[in-house]
Amino acid sequence: MNFNSILQEVFQEAKTFPVIGNVASTIPELSTVNPDKFGIHLTTIDGEDFGIGDSNEKFSIQSVSKALTVAMAFTFLDEKIWERVGVEPSGNPFNSLVQLEYEKGIPRNPFINAGALVIADMLVSKLSNPKEDFLGFIRMISGCNTIDFNLKVAQSEKETGFRNAALAHFLKSFGNINNDVETVLDFYFHQCSLEMTCQELAHSFFFFANEGKTRYGQQILTKSQVKRLNALMQTCGFYDESGEFTYKVGLPGKSGIGGGIAALYPKNFVVATWSPRLNEKGNSELGMSALELLTTKTGMSIF
Amino acid sequence: MNFNSILQEVFQEAKTFPVIGNVASTIPELSTVNPDKFGIHLTTIDGEDFGIGDSNEKFSIQSVSKALTVAMAFTFLDEKIWERVGVEPSGNPFNSLVQLEYEKGIPRNPFINAGALVIADMLVSKLSNPKEDFLGFIRMISGCNTIDFNLKVAQSEKETGFRNAALAHFLKSFGNINNDVETVLDFYFHQCSLEMTCQELAHSFFFFANEGKTRYGQQILTKSQVKRLNALMQTCGFYDESGEFTYKVGLPGKSGIGGGIAALYPKNFVVATWSPRLNEKGNSELGMSALELLTTKTGMSIF
Amino acid sequence: MNFNSILQEVFQEAKTFPVIGNVASTIPELSTVNPDKFGIHLTTIDGEDFGIGDSNEKFSIQSVSKALTVAMAFTFLDEKIWERVGVEPSGNPFNSLVQLEYEKGIPRNPFINAGALVIADMLVSKLSNPKEDFLGFIRMISGCNTIDFNLKVAQSEKETGFRNAALAHFLKSFGNINNDVETVLDFYFHQCSLEMTCQELAHSFFFFANEGKTRYGQQILTKSQVKRLNALMQTCGFYDESGEFTYKVGLPGKSGIGGGIAALYPKNFVVATWSPRLNEKGNSELGMSALELLTTKTGMSIF
Amino acid sequence: MNFNSILQEVFQEAKTFPVIGNVASTIPELSTVNPDKFGIHLTTIDGEDFGIGDSNEKFSIQSVSKALTVAMAFTFLDEKIWERVGVEPSGNPFNSLVQLEYEKGIPRNPFINAGALVIADMLVSKLSNPKEDFLGFIRMISGCNTIDFNLKVAQSEKETGFRNAALAHFLKSFGNINNDVETVLDFYFHQCSLEMTCQELAHSFFFFANEGKTRYGQQILTKSQVKRLNALMQTCGFYDESGEFTYKVGLPGKSGIGGGIAALYPKNFVVATWSPRLNEKGNSELGMSALELLTTKTGMSIF
Q1: Contact status, residue A39 vs residue A290, Cβ threshold 8 Å
Q2: CB proximity under 8 Å: B 240-269 to C
Q3: Which residue, C278, C71, C290, is CA-closest to C198?
Q4: Which of B120, B271, C260, D2 is the least crowded, having the fewest Cβ atoms under 10 Å away?
Q5: Which residue in B has a C-alpha nearest to residue C265's C-alpha?
Q6: C193-211 per-position pLDDT tens digit
Q7: How far is CA A156 from CA A25, A30, A151, C267, in A?
Q8: Would you list the DSSP string of chain D?
Q9: Chain B partners within 8 Å of C266 (Cβ)
């Protein structure tokens, strides 16, 4: 498979699509990004790298980080995670409180905000220096020591993240947050503010495609654990558009409102895209289209 | 009508009913009250007072205060209130977030917690010293200068009121709270911590029965305004048991999880009951039964 | 009170209001009515009649009939009715299936379609010749032998009433319809097709205002039973606009998508309006406005 | 891979699990089946067959048929299907009406009952003799001419399927059923009454694993179409337990309340299980456990 020319094709073809969607406006600090940035980076299981467009520019990974926090929590707690959060698609928007009320504070899955807050709470409980330790984990799996939080973005979310504050207090009212709400929110806003390039993001997700082993050889999770998290990304990684993404792209992945997507074909490759214009479900319009082109052109999807 | 003997009858008969329900457990400071307290106080439109049982003992009026804050807000804003809160029964529990999500942050009515928080926000905006000014208003309408907040109860709610904090942040995320969430919650927890006896509560509600005029002659609201707030208490005063209360008792009223209820027959009387055991909807079981007996025995209901 | 001149005033003033809303379009046979028809009829407790506008023209009373079927069922079953239907406002549209699913087939109240279908099922079980017997009951309470079903309208509903068929099958699936679904729907579509003038409608509702006794002296229900049904109309008579109607008009009443409304002031009067243009909640826009004017001008509301 | 010994192991181990769940009780004719039946049949992509237990006994495939009707509709309409039904997990029970009300009659996916009824309506519109033609299609893809409807089961569902009748009328009220409700229900109850053995079921699903080609060489769908339907089974095939199944088993599949499950590993194998005891979500408890064992032991899952 000549990924070089395929990425070229995908990139050129995607750029001819009608320009749809807008940059996320809920977080002021994020709204200033150039909406027309577009990058793709693909890393094969053999470690070969293929990048195109703005694939070496940093962006805010936002909710893509949820796959990484759940992986880190999984290293500590394994299946115990599921005592406090489910593995089912929610069928609802990412920031919905409705289901939480009916289901007594147990979020449907760790990729909606409520679930990610519970995972954040688990990490806050487990880690000595939660933010530092998590950052260390990210640098380790990505093999990149320059990855960092964007403190302005974290601060911006803190000042405007009333919906997440509502979710956290709601979870706390059900007893499903053990630490201070403020501490958990602070951790969560920091994890979301992580900045990476497409290449760094692809490298961070490498272990999901490589039976639990990073690009640099560390075994983060077992083969079986990684399969389970991949399955979870497949059914829940794109909020109430997970079915659509699975239907069209056929790869496990995770999106963020910074416009990033990480996806992977187990034992084959990991790919990251970045385009800040979001569709109405909060997923990167162009990123999804590019990935659909990729699996159509290569015939490489898990189904 | 010999209210003295009727209250005797009601009181004795109600005490023979099976003991049902428990004291509210969500606010630690409230959970220590003697569950078997029971008092009734009725004040006629002519100013005659009839009390029985523990009618002169102070209790936490909690959500009964919502009728008083909305009345105070009505003095400032009149029908403008309804730009930010509705007049419809919610058909949902008092602390539900579900409808708020579907209806973009406009609470169904001012008697569910979400609505009362919006009213609290209005008062915080309007009053120079919100808590002091509101307390002054209460003392004025009740003619009782010893009425006060219970700071321990307010503090206890602050420490455990995660659900209300969730509601307030959720409202803020929809732009329906203008002040700091903490300031609004602080006001709200104080208003709920008001302590009154049945007699003081009946006197505070006197103006609702008296075409807007307090027992001491001040015109708080116009005749028409009071009719509208009475109508609102009728359809919404008892959360998702408002229909049941209207069906059985047939008087406008407002309940609180401290076990208090204030109800009134326009141009005839106002009555307050206190019994801390709550049914599953969060309303005083014995208080509702006593009021049903009262309207059955007297034939005095608005229908 | 000079009702003659008051009705004149109300009628003239209401006619100056902006023309809002459209004729119900869901039932083809109903959609042909002249949208600008407008009539009011008021009957005092002493039996005096006051009519204005198109008050002597027949119209389809539709859901106004629900108050009459529940009254008839109440004569047979009294409080047993509430084993199969509730007394709470639904907070949802009249034809919603949502709550029914969450609440296992027990409709919130007898005035939403689901509840009225359960009441229809009760009558079908109790009456030898359900449609004829119900019509006899209506003729008796109204004192008018020419009142009849409109078979074309009933047929039209049958052909297009898929939503009601859905509700009836749904109720049946929960075991809350005992008879054949078709039989119950047939009865229901006939009851809704009843045609009356404003005057006939006011006379039919007379007993609700007169402590259970018709204009012609028959005691249909006890004083206490009638109070309870009035209470129910107050909280539930206008679907998810019941709070608004109570707030603005302050009288128990029942509306229909034919544009009719019947309302009453216990021990004082009963009033019927007809104007086919409906607001978005399915209630007569002009009828509601006229009744608001009436209670504002007379100061006669129950609150 | 020695599937013979693996199936032996899976079968023996699964039989030691605690006996959980009951036979479906909603359809009388189905409730008489022996709850302890248990069979597995696996067919490799090379056409090798491996069966164990009651794998050659006929059972009612029920909702497993939904994957086959959607495949047949896909042959006619391809992506046009999605104008009337979605591709998202519902997050709700299989027979829920709630989402349908909020989403104006467009079912979330073709595997919940509402969606399957819409697919049935499409087939009724497209086929000259809907039931016969569909049966012909099934016999063709399975290579088995003895497969047939069970008319008693179809009749039993017709007599008791009030919930499905409610769904069909509800869809009709939104204009998302074009044919007579009765005709569509009749087709649907017949498709669900199909009886197959595990082997026949595995053979029927063979083309999903074989890039669209049946075991006998007919190309039913293109490679790309089959990928998409497999993706859909992955996210939606097990109702509100789809996430769980994906998480634990990691294969696309479809379950039925007759206790059957068909699942597949693209380009590798197709497997069918039968055990009539259902868990609370309506999926075969033992079947799911057996499939989890199978993918754990073989390491063969798509993730």
Answers
A1: no
A2: 240-244, 246-248, 250, 252, 266
A3: C290
A4: D2
A5: B303
A6: 999 999 999 999 999 999 9
A7: 12, 9, 8, 62
A8: --HHHHHHHHHHHHHTS----B---SSGGGTTS-TT--EEEEEETT--EEEEESTTS-EE-GGGHHHHHHHHHHHHHGGGGGGTS--S--SS-TT--HHHHHTTT--S-TTSHHHHHHHHHHHHHH-SSHHHHHHHHHHHHHT-TT-EE-HHHHHHHHHH-HHHHHHHHHHHHTT---S-HHHHHHHHHHHHTEEE-HHHHHHHTHHHHTTTB-TTS-B-S-HHHHHHHHHHHHHHTTGGGHHHHHHHT-S-EEE-TTSEEEEEETTTEEEEEE---B-TTSSBHHHHHHHHHHHHHH-----
A9: 302-303
- In DSSP terms, which residues pair with C196 in a beta bridge? C59
Query: In the prediction, which pLDDT does C96 show?
Result: 86
B48 touches chain A (CB under 8 A): no
Q: For A170, which of B102, B163, B181 is closest by C-beta distance?
A: B163
Dihedral, CA of residue A156, residue A157, residue A162 and residue A168, to nearest 10: -150
Question: How many CB atoms within 10 Å of residue A81?
Answer: 19
Phi first, then psi, for residue B51 (nearest 5°) are -125, 155
Separation CA C134–CA C187 (nearest Å): 9
Question: What residue has token string 């001012």?
Answer: B110
Q: Residue for token digits 């389809």?
A: C60
- CB proximity list for C32: less than 8 A, separation 6 or greater: none
Interior/surface letters A29-68, b for 16+ CB within 10 angstroms, e for the rest: bbeebebebbbbbbbbbeeeebbbbbbebbbbbbbbbbbb
Of the candidates B271, B257, B260, B258, the residue with the CA atom closest to the CA atom of residue B300? B271
Which of D 98-137 lie inside 8 A of A, CB atoms? 99, 108-109
Using a CB–CB cutoff of 8 Å, tell me whether A301 touches chain D.
yes
Nearest alpha carbon to residue D95 among D73, D72, D113 = D113
Backbone angles phi, psi at B44, to 5 degrees: -80, 165
Contact C210, C222 (CB under 8 A): no
Domains present along chain A, CATH in parentheses: 3-298 (3.40.710.10)
Rounded distance between C-alpha atoms, residue C109 and residue C237, angstroms: 9
In this complex, do A235 and D243 lie within 8 Å of one another by their Cβ atoms?
Answer: yes
Instruction: Scan for tokens 């409180």, then name that residue.
Output: A97
Give me the phi and psi of C39, to 5 degrees please: -140, 155
| Distance separating alpha carbons of residues A252 and A238, to the nearest angstrom | 10
| Residue type at C12 in one-letter notation | Q
- As given in the structure block, the two tokens for residue B261 are 């209820």
Report the distance separating Cα D261 and Cα D268, nearest Å. 17
Question: Left if phi > 0, otherwise alpha if psi is -120 to 50, otherwise beta: which for B250?
Answer: left
Concatenate the DSSP letters of all residues of A195-246 into one string: EE-HHHHHHHTHHHHTTTB-TTS-B-S-HHHHHHHHHHHHHHTTGGGHHHHH
Q: What is the pLDDT along chain A (303 residues), one digit of tens a residue?
A: 899 999 999 999 999 999 999 999 888 888 899 999 999 999 999 999 999 999 999 999 999 999 999 999 999 999 999 999 999 998 888 888 888 988 899 999 999 999 999 999 999 999 999 999 999 999 999 999 999 999 999 999 999 999 999 999 999 999 999 999 999 999 999 999 999 999 999 999 999 999 999 999 999 999 999 999 999 999 999 988 999 999 999 999 999 999 999 999 999 999 999 999 999 999 999 999 999 999 999 999 999
User: What is d(CA B277, CA D145) in angstroms, rounded to the nearest whole number?
Assistant: 69
Question: Inter-chain contact B87–C247, Cβ cutoff 8 Å?
Answer: yes
- For residue C84, the Cα-to-chain-centroid distance in whole angstroms is 20
B211 touches chain C (CB under 8 A): no
Give C161→chain B minimum CA distance, Å: 26
Run of H or E residues at C155: helix C151-160
